[in-house]
Amino acid sequence: MQKSALNEHSGSTDHTTACSLNKQQLAIKGHTEKAKEISSNKLESQLVVVFDMAKRMIPCHQFVGQTELLRALKAPDFISTDGIYRHSDSVDDMERSVESVLLSQLDAKIQESEFIGVIIDETVNITVDKKLIVYLKLENRGETETCFLGNFDVDDGTAKCIFAKMSEQLQKRGVALSRVLGLGSDGASVMTGNRGSVGTLLKTHSPFSTQVHCGAHRVALVALDASKAVEAVAAFKRTTTSIYSYYKHSATKTKRLRNVALDLNDDDMISLKQPCAVRWLSLQRAVDSIQLNWPALVTQLGKEAEGNAQALGLHREILTYQYVAWIHTLADVLPVMTKLNLVFQKDDVNLFMIKPMVRASDAALIQLRDAPGPAEEKFLTECQDGIHQNVKLTRADARSVQAFKNARERYIQHLIDALHERFPDDTLNLLSSLDTLLNPDQYPQEKESLREYARQAIDQVAGHFGEEKVDEDGVVTAPLINGSNFRRDAPAVMTALLCYGGLRFTGACGVLIRDMAEMYPEWATLAKIAVVIPVSSVPAERGFSLQTRIKTADRSRLGDVKVTRLMRIASCRETMDTMDFKSAATYFNDAKKRKK
After folding, report:
1. At what angle do helices 538-550 and 560-571 cross, to 10 degrees?
2. Percentages helix, strand, coil for the chain, rounded to the nearest 5?
3. Each residue of 397-437: pLDDT tens digit?
4. Stretch 214-241: mean pLDDT, rounded?
5. How far apart are alpha carbons 513 and 524 in whole angstroms?
């Protein structure tokens, strides 16, 4: 092409028009991309609002109000109403999009976890629907996480129905029942019974699975067993409950009690608490409130006793030596049980915590049985000639005092006996053996003693996981580990873990899974199994509490799917900073395209 022709074309009208059109196209493209970016940012900001509302259990019909508030505060993405959704269906779609991201993350975690623990429990919601809540305990490179699977309707509370629903939901997420090696529950017979329970049904599909009775439930049962066994403690609970009820239903009486407390202590009274049968160890809170308010209660009930038979009866009860002595005895005893209970309510509770905490609680109770604790010692020192805090106690004669001492000793001994029964020395057998092998903190320091120390535990673990299982129909399930190699490697592995120094159960399992899997695969497999076995069903209890806060009387028409979705968002670990809102926006836009 000649240069003159190019020069001639560059000055032509056609060339000038084409260049102008190209600039316009580039400007339109840039404007379109900017508009898309603004629209995308707006959608992600709305998803943040929906996410935060679900986290704080704000009903979705308040979404418009939330966006109006942000517009009033001049939040950049909400200044203009263009692209801001207002219809409740759009809010539902945004919730579904957030849930889709969380489910995608859950599926990835499930695939990464070779073995899985399941935590289940059943209850009835506010509309009297039978519900089954399911959590999964998963492992990834030695780190564990408890994830919410769902809260499902069940037709009845039979083991077959519960197991069918659990199996159905696990299969939906691609979980083969053979991977489920731990089942945690509240210990009800329908869950962990020897015949026809959910646990026994699971064993037909996963012969190596282990059933675990929640530690927190067992501690609560220890306290309940002991209080039922000693009538004096049961009587104390009845009186304390009556005091709570007397003031709970009368603002006038409560105000008068508060005024008396202010006059006596120059401080506001502590609210009275109810010893609730369905709440773990709630008696301690009730005892603490009675102990602090006792002088005010004596004064005020004494004033109201004239002409009020209920006040007269309560006044007589709280003036007895036995009632006041039980206040101070329980103030020493109940914290021991509460601390043990709280151990099993921790998010990171695992096998190694069972034995040392139970033994510590047992030692503390024995000490309290043999000698008064701090609160009781103070009471005994201050109570002279039946006078306590300038108040003359009734039934403070030697015979009554001795009767209290006898009842006190029986009560604490019942606690000790119940603790041994609920947590025997061979606690859960297999779990105790896993703790013995995988908790270097308990190893003998002399390496020569390791083999003898671990001999019985090695035999039990190798016998359970290292031998094939044959069911009633002759179906053979291959062992999970090579028993011979497991036994052979035991001294080397335990010596290596001991040499790390300072390792406990969780740390040792992490080392085995991350650092020693190639050299000692049997031990790495054992560690993966051990960390997913749930020793507490507290996540399920918390889940039901969350359900109650979401499905209230005002929101009783929320359906099963909606409640589960809100529970999933509210309980997830993600925050507004870590949640993948871009992926949620993609799910939302794709859903809209499908509806067109």
Report:
1. 120
2. 65, 10, 25
3. 999 999 999 999 999 999 999 998 888 765 457 888 898 89
4. 89
5. 5
